[in-house]
Structure formats: C-alpha cells, structure tokens
What we know:
GO terms for molecular function: ATP binding. By secondary structure, this protein is of the alpha/beta class. It has a single domain (20-195), classed as Rossmann fold (3-Layer(aba) Sandwich), CATH 3.40.50. Helices cover 39% and strands 17% of the residues. The chain has 6 helices and 7 strands; from the N terminus they run H-E-H-E-H-E-E-H-E-H-E-H-E. The protein has helices at 18-29, 44-59, 74-87, 114-126, 145-158, 172-178; strands at residues 34-37, 62-67, 100-103, 106-109, 131-136, 162-167, 192-195. Strands 2-5-6-1-7 form a 5-stranded parallel β-sheet, sandwiched between helices. It has a two-stranded antiparallel ribbon with strand order 3-4. Helix 1 packs across helix 2 and helix 4 (114-126) packs parallel to helix 5. The protein is globular and about 45 Å long. The two termini are 21 Å apart. The model has no long low-confidence stretch (mean pLDDT 87).
Amino acid sequence: MIFDLHPKETIEELVGREKEVEHCISQILSKNWIIIGGQREIGKTSLMKVVINEIKKREQIAGIYINLRGVRSLNSLLTILVSEINKEKISWRFKVNINFLITSAGIEIRGGSKRRVVNSLIELLNSSDEIVIAFDEVQELSFASKQFLDILGNVYATNPKVHMIFSGSYVGLVKALLSPPSDSPLHGRPPTEIRL
C-alpha cells in the first residue's frame, strides 16, 4: 500500500524516488559510501531499504539494514550487527576467527572487554565479502563517535568490499562524517551526500 506510514522496501512502493535509488546504487558500485540526509519523515529509511533490496536483486550483493535508534553502546551495535548477519543467513560471507565462532546457527560473539568490542567490529567488517550495510539514525552513536569513526576509517582503508549507507540528523556524528576534521580517520574521504 503506497500511502501507509511504514517504510517502503520495494521499488514499486517507493513513488518518485527512482532517480535517487539509481544514484545510490551507482555510488555503491563505484565504492563510495553514502549519507542520506533530509528532514524527518521524508523517506530516508525507505530509500535505504529499497536500495539494499535492489542491490541484492540486481547485483547479488548482500545487504543488511540496522536501525540504531536506542543503541547506546558499541557492544549493542556489535550484537545487532551479528544478529542481522545471522537473520539474513549470510554468515558464510565472513571469514572471522579471533573474536567469533562460526556455528551451524551462524556467527557467535566470544565475550570480552570494551577494547575487544572495537577489535571485534573491525575484525567482523574487515573479514566480509561484498556487503552493503545501512546504518539508520547514525546520530545515536554520537556517544562513541571517536571509536566509531576509528572503526570506519580502518574498514574504509582495509576492505573495499564493505559499502556503507548512513542516515540521520545533521548533528554530531553525521556532521563528522560529512566534514571530517583533519584528525579524523575519514579526513579526505567523506561519503557522497544524497539530500531528500
């Protein structure tokens, strides 16, 4: 149903955004990361979900969507990321061995300290085969923006098969992603911005 208030997931439901979908897909295939910006309730989440589903269908590239609303720690982010990987049944795309176990049910996290969580996120993302990860409401990670930016900088420099899409309010972390300061690991590598 076109006019319900829930985020859309197919291109047939997403009215008037075909150009934005195509632009996002071309940016992903060009190995650029993307930030989708715009005011609340304009369709950022719908665009992210449709792009993920279209790239899965057209290019056979795995994709996961992660809503960060309410996520208050990097440990929670790691747990959600592993849960989504297992839900999508794509654990075979990851070659992890230090901070994780691969079981018949998917990937399991080995326990550890906060430092280990950062290392686990880096290991998980750097061990991935081709994947698109969409982080919605990324401003929620502002509490850990330095560590998250360090993780992103590591992944950007190490694994070109990981494609990121971000969306969120233009404060804190989103601002740091769009205009990384000179001491940021993403300095000189800002994502492509798509404003709705």
